[in-house]
Amino acid sequence: MEFDTIAAISTPMGEGAIAIVRLSGDEAFAIADRVFRGMGGKQLESVPSHTIHYGHIVEPSTSAVVEEVMVSVMKGPKTFTREDVIEINCHGGLVTVNQVLQLLLKQGARLAEPGEFTKRAFLNGRIDLSQAEAVMDLIRAKTDRAMSVAMGQMEGRLSKLVQSLRQEILEILAQVEVNIDYPEYDDVEEMTLSMMTEKSAYVRSELQKLLRTSEQGKILRDGLSTVIIGRPNVGKSSLLNSLVHENKAIVTDVPGTTRDVIEEYVNVRGVPLKLVDTAGIRETEDIVERIGVERSRKVLKEADLILLVLNHAEELSEEDRRLFEAVKGMDFIVIVNKTDLPQSLNIDEVKELAAHHPLVATSLLKEQGVDELEEAIASLFFAGSLDAKDSTYVSNSRHIALLHQALQTIEEAIGGAEMGTPVDMVQIDLRRTWEILGEIIGDTVQESLIDQLFSQFCLGK
Amino acid sequence: MVKKFEAGTFDVIVVGAGHAGVEAGLAAARMGAKTLMLTINLDMVAFMPCNPSVGGPAKGIVVREIDALGGQMGRTIDKTHIQMRMLNTGKGPAVRALRAQADKVLYQQDMKETIENEPNITLLQAMVEELIIEDGECTGVVSKTGAVYRAKTTIITAGTFLRGEVIIGDLKYSSGPNNQQPSIGLADHLRGLGFDIVRFKTGTPPRVNSQTIDYSKTEIQPGDDVPRAFSYETTEFITDQLPCWLTYTNEVTHTIIDENLHRSAMYSGMIKGTGPRYCPSIEDKVVRFNDKPRHQIFLEPEGRNTKEVYVQGLSTSLPEDVQQKLLASIPGLEKAQMMRAGYAIEYDAIVPTQLWPTLETKKIKNLYTAGQINGTSGYEEAAGQGLMAGINAARRAFNQEEVILSRSDAYIGVLIDDLVTKGTNEPYRLLTSRAEYRLLLRHDNADLRLKDIGFNIGLVSNESYDRFNGKKELIDAEINRLKAVMIKPDQKTQDLLADIGSSQLKDGIRGSDLLRRPEITYNHIKELSPADADLPFEVEEQVEIQIKYEGYIEKSLQQVDKLKKMENKKIPEGIDYDAITGIASEARQKLRDVRPLSIAQASRISGVNPADISILLVYIEQGKIAKVSGQ
């Protein structure tokens, strides 16, 4: 829908201590009020325009405080988009900012597409043509990327799960439709409310499971857990430094963790990475020895992505082979560093060991190959082949928001069925669930219901 | 070549007098247009070549909509049916639908008489062979006998007559439905004008003599006990109803089909046209669902004064001798005498994306097409289109603004939008599942949705409109009353609640809130808190539905709100899609073909994705349409 209320984090990831979550649209005030607790029960809907308010963002169902915030309230049309706009200033870094965003999405906002605020500003007559051209590029770029993500995910587990849930719903829908359109047709059982409830409850529990993975899910909140391994002196810290410096750290210290586990957060071409256990790399340069240590094994085991660094100027050692052994079955990228030095490494053997995993040659000293590495990371991520450890890969804010909506509609369906609402009305919510799930995998074609109808049942006069 | 002669000038010409044609002609005439109706055979006005029935799920609601807009179908079937039933009464109000079994002959007679009595209509027997096209506009038609009729607008409602071919087994011959003359000249002419044409197929079952049916082996299917009517205008109800009968095919029937499949036109490759999935032949059903041990067969009388019985469920293009054997294998039909054989018919249809939502062709101005020629199937679908084409053709003749029903206004809106936006690759039938706002598109509220439109365009009489407004006031007043009135937890209330297994009241409750309980009906409320005066049934029904399902209705209305916003974003008529960079090429092609009128319509075209819509929006908003055609 073009004119609903949208939300997004408007500040670039990792720049500055404050992050702003922006909401725009007819429902902006109402949605914000559902999660905002101001002084003395103040309602944002009733405060004067262009004012700023102190308060907390809470999880409405539990009233648990998520973040301490300052909220700017701006009524249209004197706003950037000419719509009602809310800006929530957060301090808590990536994790809480994302939680705030998720709360808004759960309350009915839709995640803005890249450039969408600007697009609205333009559509509402706020900006001029030259800016509009840039918007078009953004829209196009977004589609291309979304396409490649969607393509990748077609093979992903999420997509398969969503498809099977949709099929489950589609069969219920088809049966109800047959009952309606062919009331005299005797070959199909009449779909009853209790059957509907039972089947919907199954879909609900599957959605809840999926959402649980997203709640623990690392990628959105914490980034892909990434470990750099390699023998001493292959350039691990140079790699870390170049990733961090080029991309700017988001969080430099995680409170409450032990001294030796420092996690660096970087954003590589839109992919959030959490570089784990980098302190160890920095201090001792002896990860190889520590491979034998239980804790390090654990770090490796929990990693979503491993960057395995080899030395271009040295032959492949037994330790290198052990590293390959250790990362077997995981997602890793092989980095052959020090290409500025004469080659001693048997590249064919490395390729064999790397199998289908990406292989990138770098000279971190000369700052060569980092782009290729970043590209490799990004394409792994967007192609959907990277698998977060929490089983199914629900990482994308858009997917999470859609899953929440799907869950909500299926709950409404179940609620309706339990109330004794007629089957064909419960169907409305069920159908909505089906459509929302379709948005995840980019398929909302209505014809498929009719196809299902006629392939499943022998109908007609 | 016959010598041409001038034969008259009209506002609107309607070519064809089937279910689309009669609605088109009557609508135009009632709106004041001087209307000419031409048909190949005057004895076949409003003929039902297939099943003797009107209505059913979705279709029945279309009939109600036609009636609310001032059309004819509902009024005629109310006078000429042999049986009526309300379907889906066990389900929610959104999917209830009325179906009538028609007396085919009476239906035709009443419709013809109605047309003959309409002062603005000239009804003639003539076969139209070509259209008169001047500067890309249609200005009239020429008949086979050379008569030249001129008009401001022309509507073609040719049904399945265009290059019709009947197929029975390996026999194939040029024919319209029911051995009528096919229309070949006009079919060639339309191809010559450059229209994209598809070949569709449909079929009909055999008819048998009622006296040779053993009804004792079948189940009776009576009509409803309560009087029913499609039309809001109907005041007299038919009480003397005839039943239908139900029997089944069996393994023997299926074996006969299997053994003779090679003789079936459908499987020998003789039929090239695409048939509808929802109206399959019996051979189709047996082949596709070969694990089904039996299929339902409904025996439907074709009228009160005929012995012909329609064998619903046995549509077939098998050879006549096989049809005989099939019938003989079915309980009750062992000795049935086949009076007419079933057949398949192939015909030309226009690819409907060549039409504007007014049903005017994009290629030729002032030319409209409606009904089966547009790739639909069914009398109701035809009638709905005929009505809208008639309305728009008459309004064009008077230089008035077009009338387009939205998907949220009516099933007719869904039907036409689907046709002109998505096209169809099989004969199109309305199904309730095609309507995304079906909770709003109900049988009971067709008048509330459409009567204003009907009145404003001059199809609904003052008297009928006053009656409607009176009803509306009663509904609103009663809803307001129930939202205000408190029902006290006194003995009478508690007893009644206990009686129907509803939980007891602790405090007083508003009437509307009590009515929302699933087990409570308006009649219960009436017992506890009667209205000042007795209300008509349809008012009570409205009150109950609107209160009980308020939450669901509200949800649908919110979706409609979004739709309307998109519909209000109009796309300029001369937009040059080639000048818009960034639109994907498939989308560009589709947009160029369909030429949607609004962003809402554009977004429904398959192959046009949200990013294309966004880009389109940006361009339109900017007015940066590089080339407007004609400049």
From TrEMBL, chain A:
Keywords associated with the record: Cytoplasm, GTP-binding, Hydrolase, Magnesium, Metal-binding, Nucleotide-binding, Potassium, tRNA processing
Ranges of residues in domain TrmE-type G: 223-382
Cofactor: K(+)
Subunit structure: Homodimer. Heterotetramer of two MnmE and two MnmG subunits.
The keyword Mitochondrion belongs to this UniProt entry's keyword annotation: no
Function: Exhibits a very high intrinsic GTPase hydrolysis rate. Involved in the addition of a carboxymethylaminomethyl (cmnm) group at the wobble position (U34) of certain tRNAs, forming tRNA-cmnm(5)s(2)U34.
Binding site for K(+): 233, 252, 254, 257
InterPro entries tied to this protein: G_TrmE, GTP-bd, GTP-bd_TrmE_N, GTPase_MnmE, MnmE_dom2, MnmE_helical, P-loop_NTPase, Small_GTP-bd
Residues given in the record as (6S)-5-formyl-5,6,7,8-tetrahydrofolate binding sites: 22, 87, 126, 461
Binding site for GTP: 233-238, 252-258, 277-280
NCBIfam families, alphabetized: mnmE_trmE_thdF, PRK05291.1-3, small_GTP
Top class in the EC scheme: hydrolase
GO biological process: tRNA methylation; tRNA wobble uridine modification
Protein's recorded name: tRNA modification GTPase MnmE
Subcellular location field: Cytoplasm
From TrEMBL, chain B:
Cell compartments where the protein resides: Cytoplasm
GO cellular component: cytosol
NCBIfam families the record matches: mnmG_gidA (TIGR00136)
UniProt cross-references to PANTHER family, sorted A to Z: GLUCOSE INHIBITED DIVISION PROTEIN A, PROTEIN MTO1 HOMOLOG, MITOCHONDRIAL
SUPFAM superfamilies given in the database record: FAD/NAD(P)-binding domain (SSF51905)
Residue ranges the record marks as coiled coil: none
Protein name per Swiss-Prot or TrEMBL: tRNA uridine 5-carboxymethylaminomethyl modification enzyme MnmG
Source organism of the structure: Jeotgalibacillus proteolyticus
Cofactors that this protein relies on: FAD
GO biological processes: tRNA methylation; tRNA wobble uridine modification
Source organism, top-level taxon: Bacteria
Main location (coarse class): cytoplasm
